[in-house]
Amino acid sequence: MKFQFHPHSLFITGLIFRLFISVTGSSIGINYGRVADNLPPPAQVVQFLKTLGITRIKIYDTDSDVLTAFSSSGISLTVGLPNELLSSASANQEFTDNWVKSNILGHAGVLIEAIAVGNEVPGGENTRFLVPAMENMYSSLVKCGVASSIKVSSPVQLNVLQESFPPSAGSFRSEIAEAVIAPMLNFLKQTGSYFMIDVYPFFAYESNSHEISLDYALGNGNFAGIKDPRTNLIYKSLFDAQCDAVYSAIAALGFDGIKIVVTETGWPSRGDANEIGAGAENAAAYYGNLARRVETSGGIVTPLKPGEKIDLYFFALFTEDQKPGPTSERNFGLFYPDEQPVFSVPLHREEPDSDEDSPGMTWCMANRAAGKDKIVAALNFACSEGGVDCRPIQRGGACFEPVALIAPASYVFNSYYQRHGRAYWTCHFGGAGSIVSRRPSKLI
Prior knowledge:
Blueprint (H helix, E strand, L loop, with lengths): L27 E4 L10 H11 L3 E3 L5 H7 L5 E6 L4 H6 L1 H11 L7 E7 L12 H14 L7 E3 L2 E2 L3 E3 L7 E2 L1 H18 L3 E4 L2 H7 L6 H5 L7 E2 L6 E2 L2 H15 L7 E6 L14 H18 L14 E3 L48 E4 L5 H12 L22 H14 L13 E4 L8
Parallel strand pairs: 1-2, 1-13, 2-3, 3-4, 4-5, 6-9, 9-12, 12-13
Antiparallel strand pairs: 7-8, 10-11, 14-15
């Protein structure tokens, strides 16, 4: 088989050592926080996100320069109405009318999919303004004719829960359950929106490391599991347990069926001496475990809601040197401001000698649906810059097939994938590769 080499035709060229979030169209987005004095300009950030294959981001305001940079980028945004504007937004729909005209309609080339009205508000000084502000914002979107394409919600912290274990006992704090959360859920149900929740297993582990297994907090998969005595469901990941506690709390208020979106989740790569668990190795494991679940299963599902995929946003794109608080607050970023990764993702597993499939093993094979041109382009890369020895699939080689494409491509893709430790982005190949749980030879 002879290939015409066009190594630059693949966006993955030169990017395979970046990180693990380059799965175009997946349910992973990323938060683009800007509490720093050394970040690259927004236009450069947009190009960097494109390089990574990121198609969804969340920001915390509607900065004009940032929105302008994202115009016609193809990247969808969740934008934020800052907390300090909630009072005005709740008191006067004219305020939200003008805000929508200026920040949404005024940036027609930007793909805005949601507005986060406030951030982590319930229980704080702006609590009473929250739901009225959300209602006015939605009314303004309706008035401007864009309510069908833009959701309105508000991210809340996990501390809105009074009970979170076992997950089936999840409930909201009594002082906000009926006064704030129930009206918010009713609004979300009426408008077809979703419940935004920030989920950080790190904080639970940091505070209770003597009771919580690190493997459970990181979602490593080798944890035996904790049984919910009410449902008999087994939880091997604290992330899943926390999400199901939220589902249970929502159902307890009579709003079962509302979708949740995890608007922030992450693990710090550095922390103070008393911040137990903070570190690059644990951060790499946490992000990598979630990313691998999205890649292999097409999304995150939980034991309580196995048919409901959860979209999530990693926190955050960059380390932010101006954030106040403990050291961890400045070290949730996946990348430094110079766009270099903060850590690598150690996802290597030893290849078994047996020809039998083994639990937990994965392989990479060619994705037939990608089409011939994309698969050939990926072969060009893997056999040249990728460093794979492709002689076995060439004439005279042990795996040579003069007509077939999927089988030899799968041989090459899997060689590259195994060689690079089965980090899931090394099987992406611009959509030409797909991770499978059985040997490709048994699937072709």
